[in-house]
Amino acid sequence: MTFLRASARILAGTTFLALVILFIPLAFDVGGRDCGLTYSLSLAIFYFLLSTARLGIPSSKRWRGARILLGCVEVLQYIVVIPGLLIYALNKFSDDDDGGERSAVERLMGIEGTRSADRGDRTALDRFTIGPWDTFLTFSTPMFQLSEGFCSLLVIQAGGQISRWLVNRKKSDAWMITLLVMSGSIISSAVYFLWRITTFPEIGNLDATLIGVSVTCSIFLCAYGIRSGRGNPIESSLLFSYIVLCIYQIFTDYKPSTPPPTTIEKAEFPPFPPMIMTSYESLVSSLSAFLPSFLQQIGTFVISAYSTITPSVIISLAYRLFVFYASTRIIPAVRQSGGGRELHQEPSVRDREVMSRIAGFFGWYSPCILVAVYTHLLLQHFEVVGGNGLAAGWITGVPVGGHVWRWINIGATMLLYSFELLMGDEEGSESLTSHWKTD
After folding, report:
1. How far is C-alpha 96 from the geometric centre of its chain's CA atoms?
2. What value does the mean pLDDT take over residues 290-319?
C-alpha cells in the first residue's frame, strides 16, 4: 500500500511538472505577455487555495465529504483545471487574426504565427490582478537570486559534511579516493565550461574583469578552506562549480527564443541503406493513413508546444527547485536541538521547531512557489525583466537587470562562505552529521 501511494505521488508530481512546464511558456508564446501573466497568476491562486484546503480541512469523520470533494478536485486538476485556465487566458488575450472565426483550441492547434502583440490597454480588473503580479515578479529578481545563492551554499556545506562523515566513518581510504576523484571530475567539468565562456563573442572588458576577479577569489577561498581544514575537496569543488555555473548562466540565459535561420543541406547519403529507408517511409505513410486526424493534430500541437521551451530556463528551474527543496531538509536538520533529525524526514507545519514549521509551510505551498519561480525565469528569458533596464532597481530607481543581480549573488555567496571559513573550527562544522553513526 505504501508503494502504491508513493507511486501515485510520483506520478501526480511528474504530471503537474510536465503540464506547468509546457503550458506556461505556451501561454506566453501564443497569447503574449499579459496572457502568460494571467495564466500563471490563475495557477498560483488555484494552488494557493488548494494547498490551504489541504492544510485546513481536518481528517475527522465530520469532514469526510469535504475530503472527498478535495480528492475529486485533486484528480480533475490535471485534465480540467490546468488546461481550462489556459483556454480561458487564450480566449481573453489572444487576438483573432482571422476575424474571430477560430476558438482558442483551434489557435492552439495552429500555434505557429498566431502570437498576438502585448496589450497596453489593460482593464481595471487587470490592473488590480495582473499589475501587482507583474510588479512582484519584476522586483523579485534579487530575492530569487540571493535565495538561490544562500540555499546553494547550504547544499555545498551539507555535501562537505557528508563527505567528511563518509571518510571518518571507518577511516576508509576507498571513500577518500572516490571523493577525490569526484572532486577532480567536478573541477574538470567546471574548467571546461569556463573555457567555453571565454569563446563567447559578447564578452567585453568589464565582463572579462568580473570573470577574472570571481574565479580568482573562488580559487583562493577553495585553497584556503582545504589548507586550513575548515573545508574539504568536495566542498571546494562544489563552490567553484557553482561560481562557474552562475557566470555561464549570465552569458547563456535569457536569450531570445528565435535563433537566426540556418540553411540545412541535405546529406548526400541516407543514414541507412535504401531498402530500410524505403520500408520505413512506407510504414510511416501507411500508419498516417489510418491515424485519426485529431491524433495528428495533437501530435503537431505537442511538438510545437515543446519547441517553445528553452533548455537554459529548464536547467535554471531544475537547479533552483533542487536547492530550495534540499534547504527545506537541511535547515531543520541543522537547527533541531540535539541534532537528532534525519535528512529523509519531511518537515511539518506542526513541528515544535520554528524553522521546521517554516520549511513545512514552504513545502505545502511549493506549487505556488514553482509557478512564481518559473514565470520569473520565463520573463527574464523573454527579456521582460533582465538585461534591458526594464526592471527598475530598488530605492535609487537605477535600472538593474537579472545579470547584475547574478554578479551580486556571486559576490554575496563568496563573502558569506569566507565568513563561514573564518568562524569555523579546524575540524569543520559537524552540525548536520554529528548524530550519525560512525562505527
Report:
1. 33
2. 71
